[in-house]
Every structure is written in C-alpha cells, then in structure tokens.
Amino acid sequence: MLDIRSKSISDLSRIGPSVIRVLERSRVAYGCCTADSFENACRDAGVDVEEIAALVEQAEIASRGAIDRDDGFDAMSLAALCDHIVRKHHAYTREADRDVATLIGSVCSVHGVEHPELSTIQRVFGSLALILENHLLKEERVLFPYIALMESSLNFGKPVPAAPFGSIAEPIRVMLSDHEAVNGSISEIRRLSGDLTVPEGACDGYRALYAAIDDLEKDLRQHIHLEDDLLFPKAMEMEMSGVPLDPNRVDENRSGLPIIQPRHH
Ligand SMILES: [Fe+2]
Ligand SMILES: [Fe+2]
Question: How far apart are CA 59 and CA 176, in angstroms?
C-alpha cells in the first residue's frame, strides 16, 4: 500500500492525473517541483491530512485498476496513441455532437411543451458541445503535437523541446479540468432526463436522442480514460525523466502507474 503521509507532494502529483484532481479539488498546492511534504501542504491548505490521504489513496487504487495493460494501448508509442484517440474518439465525438444537436432540436419542437426539461437539456448539451469542440482543438493543435515532438526528440537523443506553456503539466491540468466539466454536463443531462428514461408513448426520435447521448457518454468514458490514465501520466513521466519510454519495461514497483524519476541536473 502506498504510504501517502511519507511522500512529498511532488512524488504524489507524479502518480498521475487522478491524484492531481484530488489535490486540486482540495486546494492543496502541488507541482512537480514542490519539495514540500504532503502533511505540510495539507496544513498550509487548511485541510484535514487524514481525509485527503484517504482520497489520494482511493484515487491511486482507482487509476491502477483503470489501466488495462492487456488492451494493447500500453505498448503503443505516445504519438500512435494520440493518433488513435484523434481518429477514433475525436472523430466520433464530432459526429455524435452533430447527431445529438439535430435530434434534440426536433424532439424539442415536438415534445417541448409537455416535457419542459428538454429545453434545459438542449441548453446543457449546447454548452457541453462547445466545451468539447474547444477541448478537441486544444489537444489536436497544441498538446498532442507537442507530445509527439517530445517523443521523437527523445528517441533521437535530443533533449525535451522547449514549450510555450512551460511544463506539460500545465496544458494537462487544463485538459483535466475540461474533462471534469464534460463529466459534470453529462451527469446534469442524466439528472434532468431521469437517467435518460424515455417517457411512455414517446416517439422514435426521443428514443434515438437518449440512445445517442448514452453512446456518446460511453465513448467519452473510454476516450477520457485513455488520456487521463495512460497518455497524460506517460507524457508527464517522459518530460520529467528526459528519456523515451520503453514499452517493454517491467518495473518491480510499477503497479499500473508510472513511477517518475527526477531529472538529473
Ligand atoms: Fe481527446
Ligand atoms: Fe481530452
């Protein structure tokens, strides 16, 4: 079991995004260069050390279980993983967004009066679609190209290339917060729609709308899992270590999450 209290904030934040999310939500200052101990950082933030330690532990266990190391993604280069995410999940998300927007427009016009929640769902979905579109562009134009460049530079024995955003942890932090917003909007739509329950006697369009939202949610879950639990921790590890990842490496203490060695100066 991970002895959280003995770790520095820097060690903990390197476990991966799931732990970073806990620290961020609890307003505990973290950062790969913070040498502060976990206990001190919690005290500075005015939060309960035991409570946050329990949350960090849960997050660490959850992300360990979330990575399926047999599905082939773990052996991919990071550039190939980015490419897979864009081709499969980004393409699907854009298509599904268009389909849901069309369906919701027509279902609203037919059933909007007897089901006033539909117009709220339409509004929430509209802002979700906007977040997603901007998010996909940020990944495709900024983060993923940088990850691919960093990987190829290291493969050619060059140093980690300079980035306009400083450390890669910065854009990753923004992506994680977008993912949270996406999950929040989906939960809100589920709540408003009674867990996507189609009302009795509803038309096929209604059924198709909720099925499309359900499919989009499933795809987003897989998509976000690949980024949060595989791509982002590996990219952070690569940046910190300054060496390319060896997909065949078996680390004795690597129980599902990368353990990052500090870069030697
Ligand atoms: Fe993505
Ligand atoms: Fe993403």
Answer: 14
- Spacing, Cα 98 to ligand 1 middle (Å): 17
Distance 113 CA to ligand 1 centre (A): 36
How far is ligand 2, taken at its centre, from the CA of residue 159, in Å? Answer: 26
Question: If we measure between CA atoms, which residue out of 233, 231, 225, 235 comes closest to residue 65?
Answer: 225
CA angle 218–64–214, rounded 5-degree value: 5
Place of tokens 């052996």: 75
pLDDT digits (tens, 9 = 90+) for 114-133: 999 999 999 999 999 999 99
CA 166 / ligand 2 centre spacing (Å):
19
Distance CA 217, CA 196 (A): 11
Which conformational region is residue 199 in: left (phi greater than 0), alpha (psi within -120 to 50 degrees), or beta?
beta
Q: Ligand 2 centroid to 199 CA: how many Å?
A: 33
Tokens of 203: 């038309």
Write the DSSP symbol of residue 168. T
**Token pair of 57 as six digits:** 């532990």
The amino acid occupying position 265 is H
CA 125 / ligand 1 centre spacing (Å)? 18
Query: Which pair of tokens denotes residue 101?
Result: 């927007």
The per-residue pLDDT for range 157-181, each reduced to its tens digit, is 999 999 999 999 999 999 999 999 9
* Cβ neighbours for 140, distance < 8 A, ≥ 6 positions apart: 86, 90
The pTM of this model reads: 0.71
What is the rounded average pLDDT of the residues 69-98?
Answer: 90
* Residue carrying the six token digits 């500075």: 44
